[in-house]
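Homework help board

Subject: predicted structure for assignment chain

Our instructor gave us this sequence and asked us to write out the predicted structure in token form, then describe one feature. I got the tokens but I'm not sure how to describe them. Can anyone check?
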Amino acid sequence: MQSGRSTAVIMRGHEEECCGTGVMPAAGLAEGGSDTRRFTRRRGKASISGWLAVILLMPLLCSAQTTEVVPEEAAAVPRAPVILDGQTLFLVRGMSALPAEKRAAMIADRIRAAAIDPAYVTGSLEPVDGDIYTNIKARGQMLLMITDADAAAEGVARSTLVGVLLSRIDEAITAYRAARTPEALRQGGLRAAGALAVFVVFLLLLVWAYRRGEGAAEKFCKTRMEKIRARALPVVETERLWVTLRNALRFVRAAILLAASILFANVLLGQFPWTRPFSKRVFELVLNPLSTIWQGVARSLPDLIFLAVLFIVFRYLLKLIRAAFEAVERGTMSFRGFDAEWAGPTFQIARLLVIAFALVVAYPYLPGSGSEAFKGVSLFIGVIFSLGSSGVIANIMAGYSLTYRRAYRLGDRIRIGDTIGDVETIRRQVTHLRSPKNEEVIIPNSVILNSSVINYSSLAKKDGLILHTTVGIGYETPWRQVEAMLLMAAERTPGLLREPLPFVLQNMLGDFCITYELNVYCDRPRAQVQLYTALHRNILDVFNEHGVQIMTPAYEGDPAEPKVVPKDKWFENPAKPSPPPEG
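My token output:
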């Protein structure tokens, strides 16, 4: 058996290393009998120890016999190609101490050295047989060793494999030398120059054809645009058609240019022996990824068909849901307790849930979903999303909460904290306000959710919005007179509601004055600033007409003359008389 022969060879080699010739010296036998008896006793002891060693090593020998390498197992051992000038000569197997790639590179270097050696004559390779191996030598230098394991990996006898390798190595050396002759190099240079000329001509033809095609496509689209304009129809679709055609032409040009460049590089590099190994790699750089993609698509074709069907089903399901919510938003369909303005946000939530469910169903069928790389990328994206989007998610949830709370609507005048403005846009994360100073204020929805919101518009149309202002008047002025003057000022102010009637409250009896509060109604919350200004002007005019002094904001003592403006000085330069109030 092979393992037995290997063990015998190793043991015999070990004996040769220890004893020199493998045969014990006979000098001791020619000496006296005592020496003979001592030798006999030693021989007896050695025989006993040898049998003990055999008994102890029997399990190991049996295990060695049971682990004999069969051809199927030998074929499964990794092998590497021996390559010379880009051509694969044969495959060799490796071992733990000498990997297949390293062994193949060493053999290729030895064959290359023999090809370069001018003293080597083709056909003079020497096979030197051993018990379990054969050395192939060139002029006494070993090129490679063929073992029974190598022959088993090929499924042939060792002698047959050696004969094939001798012929293959000789052919490779002959081709190696022929490719480097001056005549071969000269012909390769001429072919490379011809390929370069053909490539340049092809590039010029490609540029000419692309310009002609682009011009024809542009002319076609312009003609179509003119016909559409003549019919007074929109030209958006035609412009998109032109962009699509132009992009398609550019893609075709790039694909042709890439294919031509790869083919030219392959031809050019293949003309010289030093660059020939790279000529095949040019195709491999492009074809290997395409082949891998095609094989992956072919393997995943049933899953891709399932994903396509799933996509179509859920797409039409989303269209059905969208149609239902649009009907609710238009008012053609209604549900008790469900406002029409909730249709848009609710559809967004429903769509998100449907898409999430579709992803859960589709995940096992995604190509590569079971790979560790896919799981790692998914986990990484999830961690990044959870860490970086906490504020975004909070604002989105707050936006939906505000929608269903009906805190405000588009166009409402509201107050959030110290900010007053009209609602211009309500988004999922932020709300845009336009301040009375025509400033755009953007407030995150999470801030709005955690703040109090004053809506000036929600009840103004139905019950009216109350505007109020205060004045401080001394105790010497009758309160009935003060209230009458305040109501008179309200009557003079245009834009205020006549019903409900204005009213006056006495808020505080202070140390030096009484604080009166005038309350009036209006139905235009956005006009608060203008209405307050007109109301304050009329209050000043009425009190000046009746000679009543306003004590606010402070009072220290009675002046010699009342602090009022006589009516004849109301229109001092550059003031101009104002038109009489309405009514």
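Reply (TA_rk): Your tokens look well-formed. For the description, you could write something like this. Residues 11 and 474 are 130 Å apart (CA to CA). That's the kind of observation they're looking for.
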